[in-house]
TrEMBL record:
Record's bilayer topology term: Multi-pass membrane protein
UniProt protein name: TRAP transporter large permease protein
Keyword field contains Glycoprotein: no
Molecular function per GO: transmembrane transporter activity
Length: 425
């Protein structure tokens, strides 16, 4: 009965058009009423405590870093560098998109920000070169979702806080899975464009490649600072977010000089608005997470999945399919916050490594950003690229299938995730 009330109240509120954060609060209030413990003071206290977390400070700083990188010229220089490297091969603009997406992912951690930047910079060029607009938009959207997987990752921060798992280990474990997803896009793009008659841009000279590298060097240094800083304990993930924000601000204002003091105020306001939405979602979800624990829902779920506990791979497949279905209706952040407290006891009971689960869980939720009908990244690409949602959805299917295939391969072969991850621990 508790599960029915939990799901019914939340889904019913969402069906009425109530924003997700308020639906989560309503769901928490319904559970409190069902458990005969309704108290508005407890509700408010849990909302405040939900956002009162030192690790969660990483979220606003990573978001601010992403805003600064896009406005301060770091993103454009990375795209230009990728263009100099692979722009001249057949279908080169697609490979430029993938390479640039991987590099940008190691800077910001925000799928929407990366996808929007890549759409603005590359979609007009791909269409002008003769590539199908829907397919190009689909590639950009699917490349954008690599951002929550390669560190630094806002999604890993949120999952780490909700699951009480080491954020540093999640960051390190996400490096190679993000690369595998990029490789799947490379092969899919190659297969789709092999028969296209598109004239690629001319090959850059060695001097031009070196010049593009020189201009992008300041942007390319940041991922190494973050990875090595975390690896050798120089700073925590939260402090890494501050490093990323301050570094990108310094480079944009002092080195590249593309941002002025006057431009910083609207930039900070924009980042604050975006961050406030995420943090309110986190705070509201923590109310439901607390009540999920009080109502002993995890134990009920463990009992339901008891037959699968002896087969970790089968259990992972079942959980991933469930997450795929939820991801079609919910955005990444509420999905992580809602399912994590329910699923973690099941994962621990089955003896599955929480870091391994966290990586696959976040990958699944990242792909959910390009699954219709919600598809936040699809909406961002459609809006920035001035293309209909139907066309983006049509173009994204082959890439989305390739990424889901890689995800299930990681379930079949966990060493694809854990062996490389332990190199960085």
């Amino acid at each position: 009965m508790t599960i029915i009330i939990f799901l019914g109240s939340m889904l019913g509120a969402m069906a009425l058009g109530i924003p997700i954060a308020f639906s989560l609060l309503l769901c928490g209030a319904a559970l409190m009423w069902h458990l005969n413990m309704f108290d508005a003071q407890i509700l408010a206290q849990n909302v405040i405590n939900g956002a009162d977390s030192f690790p969660l400070l990483a979220v606003p700083f990573f978001m601010l870093a992403g805003e600064i990188m896009n406005a301060g010229g770091l993103s454009r220089r990375i795209v230009n560098f990728a263009m100099a490297l692979v722009g001249h091969v057949k279908g080169g603009l697609g490979y430029v998109t993938i390479v640039a997406a991987v590099i940008l992912a190691s800077l910001s951690g925000s799928a929407v920000a990366d996808a929007a930047a890549l759409t603005a910079l590359l979609l007009p060029m791909m269409v002008a070169a003769g590539h199908d607009k829907a397919r190009s938009a689909g590639l950009i959207a699917s490349a954008g979702i690599i951002a929550p997987i390669i560190p630094p990752s806002i999604a890993f921060v949120i999952f780490g806080v909700a699951a009480n798992v080491s954020i540093s280990k999640l960051f390190m474990a996400g490096i190679f899975p993000g690369i595998w997803l990029a490789v799947s896009l490379v092969f899919t793009w190659w297969y789709l464009v092999r028969k296209e008659v598109v004239v690629p841009p001319p090959r850059k000279t060695a001097a031009e490649v070196v010049e593009a590298l020189r201009l992008a060097t300041w942007a390319l240094v940041l991922p190494f600072i973050i990875v090595f800083g975390l690896k050798f304990g120089v700073f925590t993930p939260t402090e890494a977010a501050v490093v990323a924000a301050v570094y990108s601000l310094f480079v944009s204002t002092v080195i590249y000089r593309e941002l002025t003091i006057k431009q910083l105020v609207p930039l900070f306001v924009s980042a604050a608005k975006t961050c406030s939405v995420v943090m309110f979602l986190v705070a509201a979800a923590m109310v439901s997470a607390w009540l999920i624990t009080v109502a002993n829902l995890p134990a009920q779920v463990v009992a339901l999945l008891q037959p699968l506990l002896d087969s970790p791979r089968l259990l992972m497949v079942a959980i991933m399919v469930l997450t795929m279905l939820v991801g079609t209706a919910l955005d990444m952040t509420p999905t992580i916050l809602l399912l994590t407290p329910v699923l973690m006891p099941v994962i621990k009971a089955a003896g599955i490594d929480p870091v391994y689960f966290g990586v696959l869980f976040v990958i699944n939720n990242a792909i959910g950003l390009i699954t219709p009908p919600v598809g936040t990244v699809l909406n961002a690409v459609a809006g920035v690229g001035k293309i209909s949602m139907d066309e983006v959805t049509r173009g994204v299917w082959p890439f989305m299938i390739a990424q889901f295939t890689i995800m299930f391969l990681m379930i079949a072969f966990p060493q694809l995730v854990m062996v490389p991850a332990r190199w960085f621990y």
